[in-house]
Amino acid sequence: MSLYAIGDLHLHFQTNRVPRGQLKDRIWKGHEEKLRKNCLRLIGADDTLVLAGDHSWGRTLEECAEDFQYIMELPGRKVLLRGNHDMFWDANKTAKLNKAFAGKLFFLQDNYVTCQDYALVGTKGFTFEGPFYLNARGKITGWDEEKEAHARKLVERELARLRTSFEAAKRDGCRKYIMFLHYPPTNLLEDESGFTAMAEEYGAEQVIYAHSHGESRFHDSILGEKNGVLYRLVSGDYLKWTPALLF
Fold this sequence. Notes:
Elements: E1 3-6, H1 20-24, H2 31-42, E2 48-51, H3 65-72, E3 77-81, H4 94-100, E4 105-108, E5 112-115, E6 118-123, E7 132-134, E8 140-143, H5 145-171, E9 177-181, H6 194-202, E10 206-209, E11 224-226, E12 229-233, E13 244-245
Parallel strand pairs: 1-2, 2-3, 3-4, 6-9, 9-10, 10-12
Antiparallel strand pairs: 1-13, 5-6, 7-8, 11-12
C-alpha cells in the first residue's frame, strides 16, 4: 500500500479553455498519455494516488466528465485536492462531491483519509503572489499591499480548513500525518508561514504541494527538510509526469 502524489494535470478533454503556454510548451505535449503510462507502470490497485489540485480546465462537472473518467481509470485509489483552477468544486459542497463519486474518487477538504497508519490531511491553501515591484537588478523592493492584505484573509480561511482536517484525524486517534496543499506553503517573501507552523504543530512528516509549475517557479517555496518536516513539490511538469513516491 504505497502512496504517490502529483498535481497540476490541467486536463481539457472537453474544453478549449487552455492557456497558450500549455498548448505550446514541449513538456505538455501528450502529457495525459505520459502520465497514464507512468501510473500503470508504478501504481498498484492497493496503492493511493493523491492529485494535488488543478485537475481540469472545465468549469462545471459536465465539462469535467471526460477528465474525471480519465482520472478514475488511473490505477489505485484516487484522492483529489482542490486547486485554484478547479471551478467545478464548490468549497462548501465537498461532502456532496464525495457522495456523488463514492467508491471512485475521494475529495480531500475539511476531512481526512488514511493510508497505512498515516492520516492524509489537506486543503487548497493560498499564498500571496504579487504583484511584486522589482529594481533594475531584479530584487523585490515592494509589493501591492492591498492585495497582500486580501491574501492574508484567504490564508486564514484555508488555515481554518486545514485545522479542521487535522482535528478530525486527531479525534479519531491518528498520530501520524502527511499534509497536502495545492499552493506552496510559503511565498517569495517568506521563510515560514501559518502552514509551516501548523505542519510543525501537528508533527506532519511531509508537506506536499503543487501549483509552482514552469521552470522559473520550481524554487518559489521550500524544498527539502526544514525543522523536521520534508517539503516536496509535485507539480506534473516538475515531475515530468511521473508520480512521486511518498512512502
